[in-house]
Write a structure and sequence with these properties.
Chain lengths: 506, 244
Amino acid sequence: MSATFVGMPAFPDAARSALADSQLRGNLAHATSTIRGKRAQVVGEVSEWEELRLAGAAIKDNTLHHLDEHLLRLERSLTERGATVHWARDAAEACAIVAGIAQQHGVDEVVKVKSMATQEIELNEFLAEQGIAAWETDLAELIVQLGDDLPSHILVPAIHRNRAEIREIFRAKMPGAPDDLTDNPADLAAAARLHLRQKFLSARMAVSGANFAVADTGTLMVVESEGNGRMCLTLPDILVSVVGIEKVVPSWDDLDVFLQLLPRSSTGERMNPYTSTWTGVTPGDGPQEMHVVLLDNGRTRALADEVGRQALRCIRCSACLNVCPVYERTGGHAYGSVYPGPIGAILNPLLRGVGHDKQLDSLPYASSLCGACFEACPVRIDFPEVLVHLRSKVVDAHRGRAERGVRCTLRAERPVRLGRAPKPEAVAMKAASWALRDAGRLGRLERLAGAAGRLLARVLRRSAPGGRRVLGSLPGPGARWTTARDVPAPPTESFREWWQREGGRS
Amino acid sequence: MRAALLVTCINDAVFPDTGKAVVRLLSRLGVDVEFPSGQTCCAQPMVNTGYLDEAVPVVRSFVDAFAGYDAIVAPSGSCAGSVRHQHGIVARRSDDAALAAAVAETSARVYELSEFLVDVLGVDDVGAYFPHAVTYHPTCHSLRMLDVGDRPMRLLRAVRGLRLTELPAAEECCGFGGTFAVKNADTSVAMGADKVRHVRETGAEVLVAGDNSCLMHIGGMLSRQRSGVRVLHLAEVLASTEGR
Ligand code: SF4
């Protein structure tokens, strides 16, 4: 995979091009509404769904609260069962560990179980630089990889592709794809199966992630739909699993909750087709050498954020993407990360910090705060709360310069030396704060608006349905509102003035 | 009962008819409505854009203006939600224990209009007459932040002459989202376009909602498209007696 998210434009710009792609809009609307319907149905069947959500959130919160202890316990259990544990502070360390294991065994080809963590650290790209080919075996992930493309959904990474496009990708890029391949889904799957079987049988090393890691027993678990993951987990000799440190759960009992929450939220199934668990090395059966790379890569930074740390509860079900009205229209690429949608809008800034990158700073604003994600999230991540919190962190990170600028704008008592000009938004918010802390000031502004309203009432010719005068396209800053929407002309009198005129007492 | 009208800044400055309608409606139901003149804004535009320091003096003026009332009634789910869910955050930012206490005290007495009518006054039928084909958009903050449930629908169903058509995909956001509408104008308009399409599918002549900010966005598109569909705040429908 040569495509990369590095250098993506800020969300509003990336969204603009995505919105113009009618094929993408159609695919997304169809796919997300189908899965929304399935999810709603199977979630509706569970009478204690709210209790399950509360339990899921509580287990994750308690575990995160004592994360160090659980991780050390996990390390002990894994080591006792014959696995080797590695600790990786960041992507570079994790990639080097995986590549090192491959090189040690002279392996130049690995098969991969679909894994968000390895995408996050861009493992495939790193391995390719070392001359090691990494084959994605999840069908959708394979489509993305062969197409030199980027994933746009957590669960359905090729959601932006239709079957005609997939046939073209397979014919051009998949070794052994038949020339007369049709775009019938069964034919496409059969061609992929042939290709993958060869890889499963020849590869000596597999790389996976894990949905859960049980500290008590040192068991890792992968939940999937195709069975290709299980092939990777059982056929090769060497298995390396890259696991985010937030994936640890204390005991098997906790899985009772998550294995109910995850499939229903994710694929809209009561139970997922394949649940693979493995606990260290079993002599003579399955991989004989196992490594687990425990990955931080910003997770401890997120954990330090009191409001934001709830994002680490995420079990990557993608329900928040499927219900998100923004995601449904822009698709995943606009978020510039392997984590798109609402979870991406909070997780990326939490993992990587704000105030140093325009693209990251734009993500907490990529939401109308409608709260559909909060309602759907199986571990009750309060998205509106976290988004607003992260917006305040973005603003605070830029405050130094805005503060200087505004002092000069609003009360220019003495000249202030400006490094850079303040953002117009910061000036506007300061001004609003000034006007809105005092009803007298607001009243005076409203009387000005009333005068404008009386004038406009005489000159404006257009009215909205119902008769109110409206302004059409405005120049300057108003243009962003009025490109597609009329705006009501100011009323001739504010409510406040009416109340006083009517002899209101207060 | 001493009820204070929290008219909200957008209604005060742009949609005064909604404020007048609340006064008419509540007076008709025997409520003694007052308009605390010190009020300005709930500070939501600042909080939701990330400007917490700027929100502090606005929240301070809010609690000063509304001290001492039995109930504070807002014709806006979004502003009521902001007071109930965000004023505490702003107070924490201020590090001022007195402000935090005042915020806890006022925000517990804030009601969105349909909550006040149904829960406090205990009425579904407010004696309105509005002989028009109507569809209703349940705005996100009323629906998901305040959980007003079917209260607005119960009120609308009791209005004489009103023909209510269900809005397809009603619970989906209209795309307004405060500063989202300008920061992410293209996405906002794309979301609004689908909302408008659904509104037009109903064949209703009037789109009703409990938030004028969302209606300004949806209505702005309906107007630009010369759709002939007008938008009206729930309060204005409930206050209406159309000459009766
Ligand atoms: S944030 Fe919640 S809804 Fe979104 S992927 Fe994670 S667990 Fe699922």
